[in-house]
Amino acid sequence: MDPFLKKSFGLDPKRSYKVIEREDVGKFVHIFNHIRLKVYVGLLVIQLRGEISDILPEEKKEVPWKCVEGKALASLDLTPGVKKVYLMVQKLKQSKIARNSPSERKLKKPRK
């Protein structure tokens, strides 16, 4: 993942960002025409060090990514594969919230 981030976004793991969370989300088969692709989905949460302008080289005028609020994603024209990935990540986040909520935690009763 680190070489991909460096090549695509110019992010150096030692200088540009700190990994907050890295987790495998799952996999699914995506069929496009007659081609079957197995897609492996991972969640990577990073915290940038410094400003975005400090990270991107001067010659890069276009940013290869876009920040979008969750509410706005419903109105975007996303491909079926991207929608599937988004739903998988949301499901993972919801399951984490459910596991960590006080109502879901059950106290273990001591054995007699």
Descriptive notes:
InterPro entries: MIG/MutY. GO terms for molecular function: 8-oxo-7,8-dihydroguanine DNA N-glycosylase activity; adenine/guanine mispair binding; iron-sulfur cluster binding; metal ion binding; oxidized purine DNA binding; purine-specific mismatch base pair DNA N-glycosylase activity. Keywords: DNA damage, DNA repair, Glycosidase, Hydrolase, Iron, Iron-sulfur, Metal-binding. With 112 residues, the chain is of the alpha+beta class. The chain has one domain (2-100). Helix content is 33%, strand content 27%. It contains four helices and two strands. A two-stranded antiparallel sheet has the order 1-2. A hairpin with a 2-residue loop joins β1 and β2 (35-48).
Short description, anyone?
Keywords: DNA damage, DNA repair, Glycosidase, Hydrolase, Iron, Iron-sulfur, Metal-binding. The chain is of the alpha+beta class. The chain is built from four helices and two strands.
- Can you give the mean pLDDT? 80
Share of helix among residues?
25-40%
Number of helices: 4
Q: Look at the helices and sheets and give the structural class.
A: alpha+beta
Number of strands: 2
- Provide the low-confidence segments as ranges: none
What composes the largest sheet? 2 strands, antiparallel
Strand content: 25-35%
Query: How many domains, as an integer?
Result: 1
Span between termini: 50 Å
N-to-C order of helices and strands: HEEHHH
Give the overall form: globular
Overall radius of gyration: 19 Å
Spatial strand order of the main sheet: 1-2
